[in-house]
Amino acid sequence: MAIATEPHPFEPFLPAGARMLFLGSFPPQRRRWSMPFYYPNWTNDFWRVMGLLFYGDRDRFVVPGEKRFDIDKVQAFCREQSMALYDTACEVRRLQDNASDKFLEVVKATDIPALLNRIPECRMLITTGQKATDVIVESFGCEEPGMGKNTPLLIQDREMVFWRMPSTSRAYPMPLERKVQIYATIFSRN
């Protein structure tokens, strides 16, 4: 029996004036969400990384006393920082019943040029994990940057800087503080 495909549950978050586009692979199953937005899994540290990096507070985006992120604070922060968010896959097949990228088959990759057409000031493409990085490298035939590094990328005559960041999943074996240090390199050059 064929495994059903799953369409992306979120619209791209593309605020006016966005200068950077963060691309993960695909959201986890809905049962793992702590909010209906990007990096929704309570055990994914993306919003903790941003909280530590910008405010010195890993719980900056956590609803006090609850195991969920504050979507209003998260979206306001993204607008303030000119951050757009989406994923490199807009349709997937889960080969196992979990959130692991290892068991995620990309059925339809995201049309990155179409996204970029909607955010004309964007000049940075940032992947947050290996699966997302692989999709960009395959889609554009570009060089894969080292972890925390970047490489130039030309997309429809637009000069971009392609950054590869570590996954913020706790399954990725790197201390939170080290992830914060690596993510800081993006913002120090923004």
Provide an overview of this structure.
With about 190 residues, the chain is α/β, with parallel strands linked by helices. The protein has a single domain (about 5-125, about 170-190), classed as Uracil-DNA Glycosylase, subunit E (3-Layer(aba) Sandwich), CATH 3.40.470. About 25% of the residues lie in helices and about 25% in strands. It has 5 helices and 8 strands; from the N terminus they run E-E-H-H-E-E-E-H-E-H-E-E-H. The strands form 2 sheets. The chain has a 5-stranded mixed sheet, with helices on both faces. Strands 1-4-5 form a 3-stranded antiparallel sheet, with helices on one face. Strand 7 (about 150-155) and strand 8 (about 160-165) form a beta hairpin. Helix 1 (about 45-55) packs across helix 5 (about 175-190). It is globular, with a radius of gyration of 16 Å. It starts with 5 loop residues before the first strand and ends with a helix. The model has no long low-confidence stretch (mean pLDDT about 95).
Give a quick set of tags describing it.
globular; three-stranded antiparallel β-sheet; 27% helix; 190 residues; Uracil-DNA Glycosylase, subunit E; alpha/beta; 5 helices; five-stranded mixed β-sheet; 8 strands
